[in-house]
Amino acid sequence: FLDVYDSMRRDSYPAVVQSLALAARSLPEPRPRELLQQLCSQVQGGARPHLAQLLAVRSLFSGSPLVLNRLQVDHVRALSQVLFLTPHLPAILLRHRLLSHILEIRHLDRALLRLGLGQLSEEELRAACYLRGLNSTHLGRAECGAWLEEWLRLSCELQASEASLLAHSMILLSLNYGRPSE
């Protein structure tokens, strides 16, 4: 069933990346706009972004058109489907629920970092990855651990105001995971 649910979630991944690429075009500052467009193109081309690339665009996700409460409704609906939230609500409720879930994951990430990944059983490790967007059913413990470690480094670096980047990172970090990074 996890594969079926992940397939449903992955159906919205291209729409999120496309919406992000379109939103990037309207950003006023040329250098961050180019970095984000390059990041989207890279992911759309099948590559996996580096953590440094995500952190380089973090300022765009707090206080610009990319903050959760300013995203287009279709963009928010697609992001909601990634978290298995119903997309059939008014926009204000969608945004509120999405932000609430992302911040809850962020709090869980901080607790998980304090606990340490070594304390997790393989099943708990897989569940943690799955919750954060990665289909871990066909990955080994080491792959899951490496991905989750990278996710935690990103998540614990971001502020609550950068929740939009964390939501998008669920797709950006997992879409091409298992393929070589460029």
Automatic annotation (TrEMBL):
Keywords: Membrane, Mitochondrion, Mitochondrion inner membrane, Transmembrane, Transmembrane helix
PROSITE patterns, per the entry: LETM1_RBD
Source taxon at top rank: Eukaryota
Membrane topology annotation: Single-pass membrane protein
Tagged with keyword Nucleus: no
UniProt keyword Transmembrane helix present: yes
Subcellular localization(s) per the UniProt record: Mitochondrion inner membrane
Domain called Letm1 RBD: residue spans: 1-182
A GO molecular-function annotation: ribosome binding
BP GO annotations: intracellular monoatomic cation homeostasis
Pfam family, one: LETM1_RBD
A GO-annotated cellular component: mitochondrial inner membrane
Record's protein name: LTMD1 protein
Species, as recorded: Onychorhynchus coronatus
Gene that encodes it: Letmd1
